[in-house]
Design brief:
Blueprint lengths: L1 H11 L3 H6 L4 H6 L2 H21 L12 H17 L6 E4 L2 E3 L10 H11 L19 H11 L3 E5 L2 H13 L3 E5 L5 E2 L3 E2 H7 L3 E5 L7 H7 L4 E7 L15 H11 L3 E6 L17 H6 L4 E5 L10 E5 L1 H9 L2 H4 L4 H13 L3 H7 L1 H7 L2 H18 L5 E12 L8 E9 L5 H10 L3 E6 L4 E4 L8 H13 L3
Parallel strand pairs: 1-14, 2-12, 4-7, 4-8, 8-9, 9-10
Antiparallel strand pairs: 3-11, 5-6, 10-11, 12-13, 13-15, 14-15
Bound molecules: pyridoxal-5'-phosphate (PLP).
């Protein structure tokens, strides 16, 4: 009986050419390349065939009446999937401000405008408009960087990992670099100091213990093969209890005494002290410059709040050597990133307006009162527009800085906590993640949490739509 029905259904399946002739299909044939539409049709028919074959009884048998509709639906779904960008915006409701998997810093409006403008046409990337001669791509941000930081010279590359690689390779290839055992950092995505050291062609010399390193430890490791003293900011972890590290200024003193340069990988690279806003003290770039560190590297898309980039500051001679290193050609920054970085750095020239203009700093410093108001408004809107069975509450919680910065900071925040009577916490979160737009939430023991700290203005309505969709099918 079932076998016969299956045979009949399989026989009723249209061929690709039949479907191509359907009137309902014609708008898609006009809109998309024909081979893509054919591929979509074939895939739709195939999946229905599989469905028919897989049916075990009357209950899961395909209804012949709806066969054409099912094929149309599957074709449309296929075309939407095939033609939508894979890299697309998502809504970050995790409360992690510098979420590495979600692209770290949200760009400032000024930076976004530059990206748009530079993408539209040609620019003076490597041309000196004054003289008409070949220029340097680095010149566009070098003066800004030296002015803001107080450093002598600057260079920007693809990211901070590249900055560390280039600096080590230029300053110490084939020789020894001395680092404290407490600073052999691993950053997510396989950036590890010992490995970067190897790739740069330097030999790592570890000194001190995990919790304590003293000036004498560095001094004893010095020898004819020594090329560099390296300090690494333990940006994503903290060693507490009985600890001792050697301050930048002390390392500089040691370096001077033995004629060696000192380099510091600052990681998050903050240019503005955020302690007045209640955030933990983080070593600023300016402090390292003042301490006399010869070469300083940090990221452009962490606490600085710009695009992915690696910034290298330092003494003129060292920076020049890095610019001339052939490796630099492989690590160089592109024009769009450079434009976004320049626009971001310009904001630092007006420190009074900075927090207002730079989304990362805005998110990190926003008051609890404002967060409470926003959570209240979001909860209200969800209650008004989404399935009444969903339990919607407001709660206090903590957000994180992310991006491997300020790992211990707990930023008090407000969240909208959701609980479905039907869906488990993990399946509601998964549906939100797979939705359009994708909404990334935090999952607590029993609830899905939407942290308003990282939800951007205007995204509340989209969240409601995404929620309604997530709960709609079988929710
Ligand atoms: C984040 C970080 C890096 C890597 O920076 P990217 O810009 O992600 O390449 C390197 N060192 C430290 C200490 C960091 O915190």
């Amino acid at each position: 009986m079932v076998v016969e029905k299956k045979q009949r259904l399989l026989g009723a399946l249209p061929g690709v050419d039949d479907v191509l002739g359907w009137e309902e299909i014609s708008p898609w044939v006009a809109q998309h390349p024909r081979p893509l539409v054919v591929e979509a049709i074939r895939s739709a028919i195939d999946s229905l065939r599989q469905q028919i074959l897989a049916a075990r009884g009357e209950d899961d048998m395909v209804d012949p009446e709806t066969l054409p509709n099912s094929i149309e639906g599957a074709i449309q779904e296929y075309l939407i999937q095939a033609t939508s960008p894979r890299l697309r915006p998502v809504i970050n409701a995790t409360g992690v401000v510098l979420h590495t998997n979600l692209g770290r810093a949200v760009l400032a409006p000024a930076a976004r405008e530059q990206v748009d403008r530079l993408g539209q046409g040609y620019c003076n990337l490597e041309l000196d408009l004054e003289t008409g001669e070949r220029g340097s791509r680095y010149s566009h941000v070098e003066e800004l960087l030296t002015r803001i930081s107080g450093a002598q010279a600057a260079l920007v590359v693809n990211n901070n990992a590249a900055a560390v690689l280039l600096a080590l390779n230029t300053l110490a290839a084939g020789r020894e670099v001395i680092v404290s055992r407490g600073q052999l950092v691993e950053i997510g995505g396989s950036f590890r100091i010992p490995e970067v050291m190897e790739w740069s062609g330097c030999r790592l010399v570890e000194v001190g213990a995990t919790n304590k390193t003293h000036p004498g430890d560095y001094e004893r490791a010095l020898g004819p093969e020594s090329a560099l003293l390296l300090k690494v900011h333990t940006s994503n972890y903290s060693i507490i209890g009985f600890t001792a590290t050697v301050a930048g200024a002390q390392l500089v003193e040691l370096g001077r005494k033995h004629g060696l340069p000192v380099m510091e990988d600052l990681g998050s690279g903050i240019l503005l002290d955020l302690t007045p806003y209640g955030l933990p003290a983080e070593p600023t770039v300016q402090e390292s410059v003042r301490a006399g560190i010869d070469v300083i590297t940090f990221s452009g898309d962490k606490l600085l709040g710009g695009p992915q980039a690696g910034i290298i500051l330092g003494k003129e001679g060292y920076i020049r050597a890095m610019k001339e290193n052939p490796l630099n050609r492989a690590l160089r920054i592109d024009k769009i990133t450079l434009g976004a970085l320049e626009a971001t750095l310009r904001l630092y020239l007006c420190p009074e307006d900075l927090v207002e203009q730079l989304p990362v700093l805005q998110m990190l410093t926003v008051s609890a009162k404002i967060l409470e108001r926003r959570a209240l408004a979001l909860a209200q809107r969800i209650k008004e527009t989404v399935d009444a069975k969903l339990k919607v509450e407001m709660a206090q919680d903590y957000s994180q800085v992310g991006g491997g910065a300020m790992p211990l900071a707990q930023l008090p925040t407000y969240v909208v906590a959701l609980q479905s009577p039907v869906l488990s916490v993990s399946s509601l979160a998964a549906r939100l993640r797979r939705g359009n737009p994708a909404v990334l939430a935090r999952v607590a023991a029993e609830r899905v949490l939407l942290d308003v700290r990282t939800i951007l203005e205007g995204e509340e309505g989209e969240i409601c739509i995404a929620l309604a969709q997530a709960l709609g099918h079988g929710g």
